[in-house]
User: Fold these one by one.
Assistant:
Number 1:
Amino acid sequence: MKELLLVCAVAVMIVFGYFIMKRLDDFLANNHHLIDEEIAENSLFIAFDNPMILDLLIPLFEKFSKGKPNCQLHFLFGNTEDIYDKLNKNRIDFGFIENNASANDDTYRCLIISTKQNSIICEKAGCTIEPLDSSVIQTAVIWKKASNNAFANSFSDFLFSNQAVISAEYVK
């Protein structure tokens, strides 16, 4: 009889533990989702197909960050197809891609930026890498026309207001 009572008590504890763990998992999943939303709400995700131009645009991003200190900038890089895919899935807010005519359609806004290739300093190797061709590079900044992210809208306005500074031209 004692053994049956002990087995029942252990079974009740296991069932009780299962329900507590289920509630804890739901709680943690909900918090993880809320944290992800908060990060996305206070962030801009900016992707480059050529991360070398990021160095040339640092003054632009610093100026934007000074005006919007609560916005976290996240820089990513990948190929052009990945950037379009992430834009379509709302995983990134802006893409800096090789000047590409396909960026100009009903879904995206496009601003062409002219940048000159600079030398790259490799600190670990202690050397400078010079470009073979120091000509001007045309880079398209693309973003979706409809965005729910207030910082994305602020950054697009910022890009338009700084067109002369960054040698940009709006593509309609």
Note: Strands lie at 43-48, 72-77, 94-98, 108-116, 120-122, 127-129, 136-144, 168-171.
Number 2:
Amino acid sequence: MRRGSWVKSAGVLAMSGLMGCVVLAGCTPTSETTSATSTATVTVTASQPPGVSSASTTRTASPNPQRQQRTPEPVDPSQFRSGQRNGDDVYFTSPTGNIWCRFGSVDYSAGCQAKNAPVPAGADCRGNSMYPAHTLSRGFFLRGAAVMPACFNQGVFVGYEARALPYDHSISAHGYLCVSRVTGVTCFARSAHGFVLSMQEARAF
């Protein structure tokens, strides 16, 4: 689904009818894994002139910078508030634009959804004749201390002027916290529970 379609859908959705616009989801509440930095040893056989025996040398490879996890840098949530509706709510996207998130202060107004992501365990993503399963986005509600898997037929967490949260940055508002990584977005409810969302993973913890 293109961004334009999500934004249009979001304009249609009213919070009072939110649950009517969301395909039924499971409601079972459930730290981001830090990739280990390793040092690899590589053995290289050096070329020698004819008649001279080969010698083996050992080099130490530099750690892969993509495997290192930086401490996330907090951003100012006021820079991510929308002036067009729900002025106190915070909206943001992943840098790729695949994941859309929102921190609201009322029930069912916080969480993330992604067009390209696996179906979260416990979510009802069967769809219907109007909204087939393949058209639904996948994600999670954050509701107080609980995490609720869901599939969506509307842009529930889509903001009109949502900004991208850069990789290795975090944002918090209304008691919720999310961290943007190259590997996806990790969010926490008002508890130790949360979720990881990406093209490869949709997991509550």
Note: The CA atoms of residues 21 and 188 lie 24 Å apart.
Number 3:
Amino acid sequence: MKMAKQVYSSSMQRLWAQILKQELTHPGTTSLRALTILISMTHKEALLFQRIMSVSCQINNNKDRKIITSIKTTKKVIYFWTKNNSYPIEYHQYALPYSSIIILMDLGLILKTEFESSKINPRQNIQLYFQSISYTLNSYNKNTSFTYYRISPIGQELASLIDYNSNNKY
């Protein structure tokens, strides 16, 4: 309750009201760590987190949200020589410069390591879930993978508390 009293922004007050409501109906659902991070966040950082969540997705049946950063392919040019191609997603065109990811990493909302998926099996579909929109992806190259950042467990917890919509431009 002391933490909630220190918030002056109306949008942050609404978020705290939602958290308090959830705690009253389901005690213990919000961790102390999440509340500590939330109280330290500025309004600008909360908006950044909301925008990041609008481009995050879930892959197949995994409930962890991810921010896909690039698609990578490897092609065999000659028997012993391969060519690697990387196709980065340029988030600055969605008002999300790389610095916003760094800010959220420093807050502990995004894990600091960029991960790479295993090679995508061309005979299997990959499902990407963005809020209520679902996409099915197929790979035609057996040496295709993607890189991504994971939303941290604390970030996942806070994401369940905030309202965000899919970024239609994305």
Note: The chain has a mean pLDDT of 83.
Number 4:
Amino acid sequence: MEMNVEKELQILKSDYDVLKKELKSQRILNEQFFRTIRKQSAFVVGKEIKDRMRLDVLTVPMVIVICIFTDWPILFGILVSLWALADLGITWWVNRNLEMDSLLNDDVRTVTEKITGYRKFYIWSLVIGIIPLTVMLAYIYSRLYAQAENPATIQLITLSGIIFTVLGIMIALLRYKKHVKRCNELLEQFKEQ
């Protein structure tokens, strides 16, 4: 009888050791899985910043070239380029101060603060960007109206202006929703820890 109890204890102990090893390997797999998911989300958020800075850099020469070849005032090109350079500088500053390149190297509280800070920056940049965008569109359409020679051209300018403005607003809202979703997903992943 005593032998059976000892054998059962040994079997239970070996089963327990096997279970412990399996749980440890499962925990390691889960940690790797969540780390991978976080890296992907963090990569997307970091990519948004880098894409924004690339577009700002590309805007400057493109606007100047467009102004030269379409006979638009170079002052317009310079003002739009200054807007792009200001956005580039602010984006670079936010990226550097929030240390978005090393997002996953910090503790959970610091990471959530960085993501929240970036989300606030994104919202404010959209709100503040409306002012120069409105001025730029007003200038473009007033110049186009001044050059229009007949009512059909004015109607075409108005219709295309409305369509492209609505399309631009829709694209900006979709990008904003995606951005908020990515940031929220990343925040949720860190809150689960």
Note: The longest helix spans residues 2-70.
